Give the backbone structure.
Amino acid sequence: MTGLYIFIALIAVALIGWGVAELKSRTITFKHSEAEKEEAELIHKEQEERGFKEQDLKDLLAHNSTKGYNAVD
C-alpha cells in the first residue's frame, strides 16, 4: 500500500508542476526590443554580404567531419 501512495503522490506532484509550467508559459510573453531587432537585421545583412548560407540537415550531413580518416580527403 505504501508504494501505491508514493506513486499517487508522484503523479500529483507531476501534474501540479505541469500545471504551473503551463500557466507560466501562457501568462509571460517575451518580445524583443527595437534595438535587438535592428541588431539582428544588421548581423543578417552582414552575413549575406559575406556569402553566408544557412545549411539544412542534408547539407550538414554531406559535410560531416566525423567520418574518421575519410574526413581529411
Observations:
- The chain has a mean pLDDT of 87.
